[in-house]
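Q: What does the assembly look like in three dimensions?
Context provided by user:
Components: two
Sequences:
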Amino acid sequence: MSWITIVWSMNAAACLTLAGIYLLVWCKQRQNWAHLLFSFTAVATAAIAAFELAMMHAETIGQYEALLRWIHVPVWVLVISFVSFVRLYLHAGRRWLAWSICCLRTLVLILNFVFTPNLNFRHITSLRQFSWGGGEIISVPVGVANPWGLLSSVSLLLLLIFFVDATITVWRRGDRRRALVVGGSMIFGAILAWHVPLVIWGIIDIPFFLCFTYSGIVAAMAYELSYDVLHAAQLARQLQASEAELRETEQRMQLAASAAELGMWMWDIARNEIWITDKGRALFGFAPSEKLDFDRFRSALHPEDRESVHQAVENSLRTGAEYESEYRAVLPDGEVRWIAGRGHVEFNGDGQPVRMRGASVDITKRKQAEELAARQRNEMAHLSRVTMLGELSGSIAHELNLPLTAILCNAQAAQRILANGQVDRTELREILNEVISENKRACEVIRRLRLWLKKGEARQDSVRINKVVQDVLKLIHSDLVNQKVIVNCELARNLPAVTGDPVQLQQVLVNLVVNACDAMADCNTPERRLLIRTGTGNGNGNGAVLVSVTDRGGSIPEEKMEQIFEPFFTTKAKGMGLGLSVCHSIIAVHRGKLWATNNADCGATFHFSLPIGIRGTAVPISSNGQLDDHA
Amino acid sequence: MTTPSPTVFVVDDYAPVRRSISRVLHAAGFAVAAFASAEEFLAQYDPRILGCLVLDLAMPTLDGLELQDILAKAGSVLPIIFLTGTADIPKSVQAMKHGASDFLTKPVNDEDLLSAVRVAFEKNRSVRQQQTELSEILARLATLTPREREVLEYVVTGKLNKQIAGDLGTVEQTVKVHRARVMQKMRVRSVAELVRLTQRCGISAR
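A: Here is the predicted structure of the complete assembly.
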């Protein structure tokens, strides 16, 4: 046994080992056909090695012919496997070339078994035996080549072209390592395989060593596949790590969400599917396995809030603005829950909304607290109005007395005119007109009083502030006359409307005017003048309507500028010290500001600002305007 | 000199009240002059006209009490009937103290208003009559010579001619002549009548 037997056998053994390993790998990962094809290739190579070794040791021509005939079977398997490997694994090579090679090789295999002794030789005349490379005695055939053997050469040529073409494709694709290793070895192998026709045609005098040309390819393939396996393992490790990280993040997020009692959700807009966490399902009273879409979500809302939520969502989808709304949800058992929802829309490349992610939270407690605070605030405001009305009762009685006096006197004058017998129709008509108009005036006073005394929720009307000023001056007209206060008004024209409760705003102004009158009475100002101004300005960066009441009384000590708005702070002998604090909270609820300044010459000015046009919801009261603490 | 007929002056800043009160008074047969403010009234008022003033207590700028003051200082005897919408006690007391004729609250009944106006008219008439009488007495007094006036002051104390002559350092006969002149100039027949007149115009006895 010389090196030839050892090398060929080792080659076969190595190929078989690789085949075994990758067959095992394929068994674990059935979807990976490249591994199976590689196994076929390796087995075929091993078989070729075995045949070649046997052929070198052949004693008779018949033996040699039979071996040469049967070696075509592993070669066929090998070629088919190569072509499939290139197509499936490298995703390269022309399809028609692949089919041509396969068909041609199959034809070669069939013809090989049709011809005797085989496709390569018409007949083998002798076996030339000699010692090769210092090894044992080997046999090399001598005979007449079969012209059909050209088909085999053509298939080999096509294979070479196929490999070159596939390698170029892979190279161009940027996968240069793969092109060099696999493509290069395949081209090299296909070129080396040309020794077979040369031997057959008797041009060179060496034994066949096809197994080595192909085992090079097998080694390259094995290297490539092992690289893939290693790469996959590395990826798997990375994936594991990032999965762990993701799990960690997710857990942290869930912890945060559950701590904040957040229900997280995601709405796939195209498919109209809503995914929501269990906490979120519990929030809305959805069953754990219930399939959710937007309509189902909408049906869970309080009927009065459906439209506003719908509009908020539409607006976000249209403009991409953050979705934000507060609404009531009605649970299956009839419980009503206040929920705040916030969300963000994601758009695709065409600017179409794709999905919306967000979170919802139960704000029932906050809403209840707000409602309670609002109720207490309104009650406080009402109480303050009633108190104020008590103080103004004389003035209000006077306001009613005037029209009543005119009505009574007119009616009695009419009676007298009738009794006198000289009826002047024109005069009677005038009298009746005046009775009617005075009656209306009295009704107006009563209507204002009723509004003033009405208890209930604060309204959200569109209010013209100049009208408020005029109403207030009518309401306390007699008081002003009694105190001999002259009121000058500088009312800006075309003021924008503000949103709020007209009566509460009147209340603020009455308070400021009455305070101003008191201030002037206290310091015996000879000239009791009051200036009421309206205009526009800047409040919190947005447009605001400004109102100011300027008196000519005493000034406010600087250190008490803030204190005057605190409850129970008063400088009056009879005052409760609630008026200004109530005003302060009323203005705060209207998202405005109330403050005081001293005038340059004498007296003080009280100002308040109201934002233009903002429709406030139930606003939580700011920390310095709170009422709930001391209501 | 022709004096206009007695008139009710109405001062009220609220037009419907002013008009309706004027109508009632007019229908009851009174001459009425109405004013929207105290200033307007002062500008147009003729003190010679008899009558009374129906005055609103609460008015901007000059109010009822201030107008009452101004009139009193000017020596007006025009009776004032206050009309007020609010029963303000301190103000009503002040008004009455300063000689208001009446104090009515709104809404006022026509009969109450008319009787108050009648009473005020009567008051005004009698005051004016007294004023006329007084000025006549004063005119008679002014015709006396200083000596006669001296004698008058002694006569009204009830002294006899002899005593007066003694006090003045003259003779009884002279005093008798002076006394007769005084009685004639003052147009009285008895000493009692003379005493009544001098009391009315505030001449004190010596």
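Follow-up: The first strand of chain A starts at residue 121 and ends at 131.
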